[in-house]
Specification:
two-stranded antiparallel sheet; 3 helices; 6 strands; globular
């Protein structure tokens, strides 16, 4: 099956694989993930060319001899979609030659069309800083696992 969720696709893939295994439909699941976001980045967009990259991975998940099932906690906020999107090319704004493919430059000299990815990096970072800790603690609560049982939480700080 194709789970078309960009960066979150891996996590949703792990979730689907866990469901297949824990319901007994599968003993093993090979999760193959690939994303090619650079096809949506304009060559004149120097900011996003440094952030996005194409990648792929393969992960095997197998049944375990444990009574405890996996726990997942998803958090999304569709109201923040404007902070990371491709405006044109879908049903809301179909591609139109001479309209959606016009190259525009922002105040920092980054060029993109409505058919390219646009991202407000500060808003994305603020979303993460505001929500990730709460989501992690909620997941621990679902597992009935006190935070004191975790030896280390390690978050990578962006260097840009």
């Amino acid at each position: 099956m194709d789970i078309n969720y960009g960066c979150a696709g891996y996590v949703y893939g792990i979730f689907q694989a866990a469901l297949l295994i824990e319901t007994g439909y599968c003993k093993n699941v090979l999760l193959c993930v690939g994303d090619t976001p650079t096809k949506y980045i304009n060559e004149h967009d120097k900011a996003l060319r440094m952030v996005f990259g194409d990648a792929g991975s393969a992960t095997i998940l197998s049944e375990k001899n444990s009574a405890q099932n996996s726990a997942f906690n998803f958090f999304t906020d569709g109201a923040q979609g404007k902070n990371l999107m491709v405006q044109a090319g879908g049903f809301r704004m179909p591609r139109k030659i001479g309209v959606t493919d016009i190259l525009n430059f922002d105040e920092n000299g980054n060029g993109r069309t409505l058919e390219n990815i646009a991202m407000d990096g500060m808003e994305i970072m603020n979303f993460v800083l505001k929500n990730v800790k709460r989501v992690i603690y909620k997941t621990l609560e679902i597992l009935n696992l006190p935070p004191s049982e975790i030896n280390l939480f390690h978050f990578i700080k962006p260097t840009f």
